[in-house]
Design brief:
heterodimer; A: alpha/beta; Rossmann fold; five-stranded parallel β-sheet; 24% strand; B: alpha/beta; TIM Barrel; 20 helices
């Protein structure tokens, strides 16, 4: 029996179409041995929750680049909680001011990887922190 | 553990890692006469102002006029953007530029359910003629040049109409308006706006704008082919040239079908290029693009007016080269990129702000970007002589290398049937994804050095020097309130009449130019979404590209 691979969902909420980062992270997490569901742009909290449940993911990754993180990220965190997906790791990437990271963490975001983050620390973080069975 | 002395010794011995350009073109140790033996000065280079315009489009270059110093802005309420525009004028900007929020750029109004959280956040929320009027308050439109950073051509039609309507209200004849609308609906598919950019209708609207402006706004740049945005998706320098010029050629082919001759409209086509991190490669890229375009225009399209041969372009320094780590370093990156743009012969320049990878640019970071341009223009002396690097063995050889590689890709696209065909079969998508991933892998592996990211790293910052600019949360509420109020108080009969006319003409087929009818609807206070939705429906599409909102006028 092989080890169960870490399953990650990558997505964007709202109208922003800057998807270069989300796509690159998707491809590189796959290279890092994870299974990634790329849900892409124009999603809502609801479509993400639904996919997260259907795909039984360990991690939900949200990419925000246009200043919308303070609205979308806490909202999605709340919805994850309501859907009882408490053991799913919720990470945010993109254009996020350092100043906003504490507020995001207080509101249910487990980790923030700003633009310019390298993959190795992200992969390490996900491996160490996925709380579910492997 | 490496000691300080070990690190010092290692640093002392450091040398360049990559004997190639940022785009991966191989480089020699040095260049000399044999490397330019095949370059014929008269035929391949020419004096500035002479075909094939490799050295620049004007004989006197910046002695005639400096490049336009233009900083993009737009956020918050229309009156806040107005204040920022006037602030730029006050500080010595020589042109204005506005970017719109995401709902507007997708053709949605502020009251669209999917616009929640995005109104006025990354651009100005200009839904109606009234909003445009507020945005331009106390700015005399016959005295300024304006650039609208907007590319979904359906939205551009409405924005242009709003601008013309405000000009007329100010008593300015549209023929006296100077400026640019991006109107490049092919490239914008690759910038996240595919869903609101159906290929055929979008190209039709781009051509409507080109045709309308050619006939009524002779000083306006009818289209601004956006190579910059394409480059930001992750492609390299030769791809930037080839993708952009292939798209430009498609617009020409489509516009010719309207019965205009190429020399009628080509002189008012403009371009927007990136200036990325590799200094000499970017200069060579701009020279090569100028040369290839001149040849395309003369040889392929048979343009006889020398103005049609001119690759006139603005430059946007490379936003994707900036990183949030050690953010002040970005100011240095921006300055080098700006220098490359000027040495490459740009007609206008937008410098990024150092805080861009972190938040909306603050007023102070905006000023620093403008000062970067002013120092270049007024202190460094680089504007005194046209194409100062022309004749350098390296630059001429590299220009030729870029030209050959870009031409190879252009031929490949032509072989597929041109840019529209390459869009349809998702060829651009695949090339973009491949290139973006390759770049990221090179950064991950350290093959490419990014200071602060994979070299010379410091502990993460906790705060942004200069602070963070935020859009007040009341912006959205206020914009929705204004829109609802307008929808209740406008002249419904007049509105309905203009909407019906727009619909009727939109049903007459793709050669029927819709801009005059868009203008009438806009003047009757039709909103962005209402105007676009009416055209979409006439073309058999849903009123709302996101299929959430219904038309107040017609059933889908």
């Amino acid at each position: 029996m092989g080890e169960r691979k870490i399953r990650v969902l990558i997505s964007k909420i709202g109208l922003d179409g800057h998807d270069r980062g989300a796509k690159a992270v998707t491809a590189l997490l796959r290279e890092g041995g994870m299974e990634v569901v790329y849900l892409g742009t124009y999603q809502t909290s609801e479509t993400i929750i639904q996919a997260a449940m259907q795909e039984d993911v360990d991690v939900v990754g949200l990419s925000c680049l246009c200043g919308e993180h303070l609205k979308h990220a806490p909202e999605l965190a709340q919805k994850l909680k309501e859907a009882k997906l408490n053991d799913v790791l919720f990470v945010v990437g993109g254009v996020v001011p350092w100043e906003d990271i504490p507020a995001l963490k207080e509101n249910g975001v487990d980790a923030v990887f700003p633009a310019g983050s390298l993959m190795d620390p992200i992969v390490d973080y996900l491996k160490e922190n996925t709380r579910r069975r492997n | 553990m490496a000691t300080e002395v070990d690190k010092l010794e290692q640093a002392y011995r450091e040398k360049p890692k990559r004997p190639s350009t940022w785009s991966g073109l191989p480089l020699q140790e040095f260049y000399g006469p044999p490397d330019v033996a095949g370059v014929d000065y008269g035929q391949d280079v020419g004096d500035p102002g002479d075909y094939p315009l490799t050295r620049g489009i004007h004989k006197d270059m910046y002695r005639g006029r400096y490049w336009t110093r233009r900083e993009v802005s737009g956020f918050g309420l229309p009156e806040e953007s107005n204040r920022r525009l006037r602030f730029h004028m006050e500080e010595g900007a020589s042109g204005l530029s506005v970017i719109f929020d995401l709902p507007v750029q997708m053709g949605l109004d502020a009251d669209h359910p999917k616009a929640r959280g995005e109104v006025g956040v990354q651009g100005a929320p200009i839904n109606t003629f009234r909003d445009m009027d507020t945005l331009l308050h106390d700015i005399p439109l016959d005295k300024i040049t304006m650039s609208f950073d907007e590319s979904v051509s359906l939205c551009c039609a409405v924005t242009l109409a709003q601008y013309v309507a405000v000009a007329q209200k100010q008593g300015v004849d549209p023929s006296n308006l100077r400026g640019t609308i991006q109107n490049d609906s092919l490239h914008i598919r690759y910038c996240g706006f595919g869903i609101s950019t159906p290929v055929d209708l979008s190209v039709k609207m781009s051509v409507d704008i080109i045709e309308y402006c050619t006939r009524h706004m002779p000083s306006w740049n009818t289209i601004n082919i956006n190579l910059y945005d394409l480059r930001e998706t992750g492609i390299n320098a030769p791809q930037e040239i080839a993708f952009g010029l292939s798209m430009a050629s498609s617009y020409i082919e489509e516009t010719l079908k309207r019965g205009l001759s190429v020399d009628d409209f080509a002189p008012r086509m403009a371009f927007y290029c990136s200036s990325h991190v590799d200094f000499f490669e970017e200069i060579a890229k701009l020279r090569a693009a100028r040369k290839i375009w001149a040849k395309i225009m003369k040889e392929r399209f048979g343009a006889e007016d020398p103005r049609s041969w001119r690759f006139r372009f603005g430059v946007h320094t490379a936003g994707c080269s900036l990183v949030p780590q050690q953010p002040l370093n970005n100011a240095i990156r921006i300055a080098y990129q700006a220098l490359a743009a000027v040495l490459g012969g740009a007609q206008s320049l937008h410098c990024c702000s150092y805080d861009e990878p972190i938040c909306l640019p603050t007023e102070n970071s905006n000023v620093l970007a403008l000062r970067t341009q002013q120092i270049l223009a007024f202190e460094t002396g680089v504007a005194n002589v046209a194409d100062p690097l022309g004749g350098s063995y390296y630059i001429e050889s590299l220009t030729q290398q870029l030209e050959e590689e870009a031409q190879r890709i252009l031929d490949e696209i032509d072989g597929m049937g041109g840019a529209i065909a390459a869009s349809r079969n998702a060829w651009f998508d695949r090339e973009i994804d491949k290139a973006a991933l390759t770049h990221q892998q090179q950064v991950e592996s350290g093959e490419k050095t990014v200071v602060g990211v994979n070299a010379f790293v410091q502990p993460p910052e906790t705060e942004t020097p200069g602070g963070v600019l935020r859009v007040a949360s009341e912006t959205e509420e206020e914009m929705v309130r204004r829109l609802r109020e307008l929808k209740q108080t406008r002249d419904q009969t007049r509105l309905r009449k203009t909407i019906d006319e727009l619909r009727r003409h939109a049903e007459m087929g793709e050669k029927e130019n819709l801009i005059p009818f868009v203008l009438d609807a806009v003047k009757a206070d039709a909103s962005m979404a209402e105007t676009i939705g009416t055209i979409r429906q006439a073309y058999g599409m849903s009123y709302d590209p996101l299929e959430v909102v219904q038309s107040p006028f017609f059933k889908d």
